[in-house]
Amino acid sequence: MIIAKYLSVLLVGYLLGSIPFGLIISKVMSDKDIRGVGSGKTGTTNVLRTAGVKAAVMVAICDLGKGALAVALAGLISGAYLKTGGSGWFTRESAQAAAALAAVFGHTWPVFTRFKGGRGVATFLGGLLALCPPAGLFGAELLILGAATTRYVSLGSMAAGVGSFIILIPLTVIDNFPVAYLIYALAGAIFIIVMHRDNIGRLLSGKERKLGEKI
Fold first, then answer.
1. Under a CB-based contact definition with an 8 Å cutoff, are residues 96 and 85 in contact?
2. Which residues form the domain of 169?
3. Whole-model pTM?
4. Is 212 contained in some domain?
5. Does the pLDDT at position 212 exceed 90?
6. 101 found inside a domain
7. What is the number of domains present in the chain?
8. What is the pLDDT of residues 168-202, one digit of tens each?
């Protein structure tokens, strides 16, 4: 029963993450299929460049919500079947962290759109906000500040992923936050960097587009 509950939260997280809010909102507001425009990604940055600020804000909120809702539903589904706290793998906290990570995978490879999605940054931060609000807020601040000061969203995104993991180290060691949250942040940071490997190449060559530049 415990394994079944654990697998069910992974499935729920993945399906939630697969909801293509970027594709839906940009289509409704601009009549564009963003998979064929710009980077081809369905995340906030490509929506901003192709459908405008209002659409991008809506997508960011929805994508954050996917990660947070995955955590909340994982807590409800696991219920009394998984213990809270402790050092074992099958705890409620680890199930919630796993569901959040599954939502990130769903956003990146959504089953509803032939596995073509975004890079998962907003969904990752939404999950972290639900798991550990201080770390999630810190990551979101790094994303906003990094993108605003450099005008490179990719740099802000990677800073958010790495910074979230770093801030969780003292929170885990000193404040006894669950190790599962630290593992989630580490996995998320690595995932975000890997998903931005093309951006890293363009940053190094000076070809990365800045905010406000035309496609």
1. no
2. 2-111+119-205
3. 0.93
4. no
5. no
6. yes
7. 1
8. 999 999 999 999 999 999 999 999 999 999 999 99
